[in-house]
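Homework help board

Subject: predicted structure for assignment chain

Our instructor gave us this sequence and asked us to write out the predicted structure in token form, then describe one feature. I got the tokens but I'm not sure how to describe them. Can anyone check?
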Amino acid sequence: MTVEDQIQAYLSNQPEAKRAELIALDGLIRQTSPECKLWFLDGKNEEGKVIANPSIGYGAYVIKYADGSSREFYRIGLSANTSGISVYVLGLADKDHLKREYGERIGKATVTGYCIRFKSIKQIDLETLRQAIQFGFDAVD
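My token output:
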């Protein structure tokens, strides 16, 4: 199964209202960076145990660990959860940037160092979210 097939299957398995919002956000992210690498993580570890919510990933950057090892991972993530939707902006050097730059303008959302979490896209300013996503894509490792 291709990554695109996995993404479509994930979206198709969401409840109708959440599915529509995830599809809209998927479109927004892909429009922001049309040529970005696509990822799908099913949320399971090597043993098949669920350890996280499944997520769609977009773009790429290299995570560098303290032990000197590194690996490629997605830059922007999109995931449904029980309370709504999370958009992840990963790899930012300034962990206060999202909250400082977008927190007050985005609407009814919780903004942390790498996550923008909200119940519905109806409660947030999509242009502000798009700006945060664009910042994530443009960030330098």
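Reply (TA_rk): Your tokens look well-formed. For the description, you could write something like this. DSSP finds four helices and eight strands in the chain. That's the kind of observation they're looking for.
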